[in-house]
Amino acid sequence: MSLQSLGLTRDQELVYRHLLRTRRFDAGTAEAELGVPRPSAVLDELRALGVVDGHLVPLPPAAVVDLLLRRQVERTSRELARLDGVFDVVRDLAEEARRGRPVELVERLEHSSEVNLRVDALPDRAETMNAKRLPRSPGHSEEAARTFRRRLTDGMTSRTLVGATTLDLPEEMAYARLMHGSGDLHRVTAEPFLPLLVIDRRIAFVLVDPDEPDAAVLMIRQPGIVAALVNLYEALWSRAADLDALDLSATEARVLRALAAYGKDETAARELNMSLRKYRAHVADLMSRLGATTRFQAALRAVERGWL
């Protein structure tokens, strides 16, 4: 098998084999024996590829084959990524035929509710990247949540970034933990960010006015803009805290101590000067966070974590 099938040129392979045999390099001899014009230039190419080191010592054949194979795999991956854009064109053409007008690279949707309709119309979603102030919107539908969890079960990957204010809302935190446990990985950030939704790294949705959740939305297909938004999301995600790693808030710590100290919810809520409904919401969230099915089990696991 020739090394040319792994990416070397004919002259590069001849010079490499020559070095393996002779363990030294003489430009005149190499040119005469191999018939390779400008062998010194070819040697520089081999050094740049990493096939020959700075002392003109050739890498062992196994190492060279491994190196060239990895380069081929990387080159093939880049080509596949480029060809993946062809499917975007097919989708756009199909959408253009369905709607009877050109598909715009940046389209304005007059109401945020239109986003769900557009997202649901996308076939075979593989990846979702979400950044929002709260785990769910005011118009949240339990049926929509169940449908989303079914997609996760079917193999879709999803990440959701939420604001730190989530920590102060037990109902929202409980929902975030539910979705996190279902496979929609959640992280929490204290950094300011703009609400964002990216589907399969090719379509992005952003609010025209971030302070108006029900305002118009931009649906963006322009690859450069989408790539910039994906990079922004990845940077925020890398600095955010994993939901499972968050420390207890002061309120959660007080609830946990009350849970261990009082047998009745009414007594615990009264001691905390908190409504019974809010106290029970905190307890439910803590149990979900601890993976406990009973309050006794929650107390034991809290001790194990050093929370009590």
Description:
The structure is a single chain. The protein folds into three domains: about 1-105, Arc Repressor Mutant, subunit A (Orthogonal Bundle); about 110-245, 2-Layer Sandwich (Endonuclease, Chain A), CATH 3.30.870.10; about 250-305, Arc Repressor Mutant, subunit A. An eight-stranded mixed sheet has the order 1-7-6-5-2-3-4-8, sandwiched between helices. The chain is α+β, with helices and mostly antiparallel strands. It has helices at about 10-20, 25-35, 40-50, 60-100, 115-120, 140-155, 170-180, 225-240, 250-260, 265-270, 275-290, 295-305; strands at about 105-110, 125-130, 155-165, 185-190, 195-200, 205, 215-220, 240. It has twelve helices and eight strands.
